[in-house]
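Reopening: structure tokens for the iron/sulfur cluster complex, inputs below.
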Amino acid sequence: MSRKPAAEYYAERRRRLLDNETCNLEFSTKGIFEIILASPMEYGATMSSLRFQNTFRQLASWPETCCERAFYPEMDEYHWRSRYGYPSVTLESGKSIKQSDLLFFTPSSEDDYIRILEMMSLSGIQLKSAERVIKWPLIIAGGTTVTANPMPLAEFMDAFVIGETEPSIGPVLDTIKSLGAQGASKKKLLRRLATLPGMYIPSIHDIPGKVSSIMRQWAGSDGMGMTSYIHSPDCINRDITMLEISRGCPFNCKFCQPGYVSLPYRECKLEELESVIDELQDVKILALIGSSPRSHPDIRKIIKAAEKKGLEIVLCSNKYDDQIHSGELHDDLTEKSIVLSPETGNDFLRKVIGKKLKNKKLLDSMDKHLESAEKIKIYFMIGLPFETDADRSSIVDFVKEVRSRTDLPIEVYVNPFIPKPWTAFQWSPLANPTDLRDWIDILSGEFRKMKKVKAWFGDPREAHIRALLARGDHRVSRALEEKLSGVGWNTAFKNAGINIRWVLDEVDPEMSFEWSFLNMGFGHTRLAREYHASISMNQGRIKDLEKAAEKEELD
Ligand code: SF4
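Re-run output (same inputs, fresh job):
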């Protein structure tokens, strides 16, 4: 492909994406303050996220601002841009992401860190905040992942929004706008931003461990209940309209970072949801979104209101990352699937990891929904803290039990457990990738023997990298830069002075992590207490097993 036609081809692709969209809201395309909301994921996945659509609405509807979106390019386009020096551009006008007053990144997992740097690098933006002498664009990141641990990106971002954007975004925009209009220096701007609740400014809040006043922000239930308003055949969830019915999670799974970092659990009020549903136009399928949509006390009434409007309903969990699932059972957004998230096949281990759900209840709920489903998806984790060989065998038993109850195709997803910041298991080790590989071999052999069961396994090596990024400190920024230069991850971490084996060992709960200076609204004491409770529960199990073995010997 010669250079010119490729440029035209990608410009046309961009315009087609835009033309295919229908948007129920109108935003100003002109404003004195120009923002770009940049997703380090591709268009289809990003625009299927209610959270992204909500952030865009907040930014684009703020007075005197105009906001455009930018997405990580599809792989072919990324290589072309990188090879010929074309920047990452916005969807709306095709301008470089460098040409804005504020560039707001929304990483949704650790995998996005390197993609953020790739987008910046494509666009000729100096990576390090301290080296960006030109004030604009100011670069900010927000979202669950950086709320929990901003340190890996701390050298690159000018600021972080810690917590949900609703309470923070207005004051942030007003501050930047007014000081920007006065010609204030970048330093002055950042100093002022540092005074706002929930803002972490690495260059000002200089020494992690010595500040404790950066408090995570969250919206009241009044600011919730959002619906998706941009639809496109290019989105993963196509013609489905999403409606948020709750935020946070009523459960307390000890491995789940979004579960902790989205606390408190909040439900949207029935009357407000009914009125939103009543006003919906041209909607056929409505997805009710929450970490555990069936936990909403008025779920039946909400469904009734939607059915009265002739809408088809799906109940979906938030798709934050691979370690968040509905408390019990939910539907897939795009397929007629029942989704079960038992995490493990064993009731005891499930209790130890904080998920108070029994096999029987889960399977009985599944039975009730079999008639309308076309397949079953089941999500497990391996390498969980305190997991034994017997626990892993129980995964096979669980799938066998599902197989015995239905002829529907079964898809099994098994991901390695990754210890994440601000969870009760943040001190736990990642299972050794070699062991993970052996366990995957055993499980896949067992699943192959079952009819109409297909299994997918998370890659142990990728899990190892993710754990290093998730629990990393400021030195990870060096590893990211090294990775950007084209070396492999092992070399990148080595050059950054990070021993990649450290995440394979348990960390002393007395030890304070670099991210501990943030105030999540709950403390490390709570997490340590929950961790120790799991340890005690497991010790009880070991004692019981020893007693049973002794008894057997005596008999
Ligand atoms: S895994 Fe699911 S049920 Fe458990 S805390 Fe996270 S969101 Fe809630």
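The two ends are 78 Å apart (CA to CA). The CA atoms of residues 534 and 540 lie 10 Å apart. Marking as resolved unless the reporter disagrees.
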